[in-house]
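Run log // design_07
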């Protein structure tokens, strides 16, 4: 099969022929139609994010959509020809407190596609049959692919926040994840405030249901409108610059959810916490149960997204655009006849 192979951190991925994998017991082999390209792939490609083993998988990618072409021993519930989604989680330990509490995305012994095990920047990928996602049998694979991570992460963040109808939800960062979050929050009955540094993204956010839009600036924390105090603030912006605005925007006893991977520290006063009772937590992708809920929402009314289709040969250019912040919307590799 053809695959985009990571040989050296930060260097172009090599498009080469490698042996097609064979599914082991409990696994399925999926021939891919499309694979989304995620910002986490950029972190792995650059060498900024490494698994505990220290050696990242040679094939990145974790937003795959394809068809089952081979079924390993002891697999039940999957048949050849069925459409499957391949997301971040390849498997988890299944025995820790997090796994038993339906919080498997926080399992500290998880293995991930494109990180610990081979991912979806290839024509075929092996998936654990228990973790492969049931996805609509019809529909554009390039539009479905980003839901495997971007859409699921947005949904998982809103579930983590416990958003309920009528609450005000401020979404910081209106890239791919933020735009999914806006659509999901509206379907859950929330009033949505969209915050971004880009006016074009704010216009798009408004078209997708955000009732209020605010242009992010260094002064926003001091100028946050009192009438727009939020029950929930979710950060999808990969920068600590949104922190002051979030703490200004949140109501007493509100919830702040970190969804973007931001390594820089932010100021936090314990006195402020005792005075406000604000709840601060993080979220990581989502669970299989959340994926099922997300797919049900998508089948009832497909989520909108800007998805640029690229070939496998163009994957390094796509990663560079994502790193530079010049990618418009999501990007997806399209395989075979759709390439």
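design_07 sequence
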């Amino acid at each position: 099969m053809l695959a985009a192979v990571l040989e050296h951190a930060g260097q172009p991925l090599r498009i080469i022929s490698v042996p097609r994998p064979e599914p082991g017991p409990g696994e399925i082999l999926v021939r891919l139609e499309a694979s989304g390209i995620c910002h986490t792939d950029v972190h792995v490609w650059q060498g900024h994010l490494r698994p505990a083993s220290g050696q990242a998988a040679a094939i990145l990618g974790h937003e795959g959509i394809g068809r089952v072409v081979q079924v390993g021993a002891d697999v039940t519930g999957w048949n050849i020809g069925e459409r499957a989604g391949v997301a971040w989680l390849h498997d988890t330990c299944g025995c820790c407190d997090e796994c038993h509490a339906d919080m498997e995305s926080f399992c500290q012994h998880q293995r991930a596609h494109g990180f610990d095990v081979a991912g979806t920047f290839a024509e075929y990928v092996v998936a654990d049959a228990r973790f492969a996602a049931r996805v609509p049998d019809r529909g554009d694979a390039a539009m479905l692919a980003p839901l495997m991570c971007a859409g699921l992460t947005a949904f998982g963040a809103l579930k983590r926040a416990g958003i309920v109808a009528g609450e005000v939800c401020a979404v910081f960062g209106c890239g791919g994840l933020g735009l999914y979050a806006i659509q999901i929050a509206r379907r859950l009955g929330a009033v949505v405030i969209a915050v971004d540094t880009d006016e074009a993204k704010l216009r798009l956010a408004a078209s997708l249901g955000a009732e209020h839009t605010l242009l992010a600036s260094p002064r926003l924390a001091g100028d946050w409108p009192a009438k727009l105090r939020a029950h929930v603030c979710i950060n999808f912006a990969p920068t600590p610059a949104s922190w002051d605005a979030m703490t200004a925007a949140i109501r007493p006893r509100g919830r702040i959810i970190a969804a973007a991977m931001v390594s820089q520290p932010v100021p936090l006063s314990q006195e402020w916490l005792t005075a406000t009772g604000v709840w601060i937590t993080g979220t990581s992708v989502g669970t299989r149960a959340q994926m099922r809920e997300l797919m049900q929402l998508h089948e009832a009314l497909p989520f909108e997204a800007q998805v640029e289709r690229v070939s496998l040969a163009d994957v390094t250019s796509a990663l560079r655009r994502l790193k530079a912040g010049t990618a418009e919307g999501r990007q997806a590799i399209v395989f075979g006849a759709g390439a």
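The mean pLDDT is 96.
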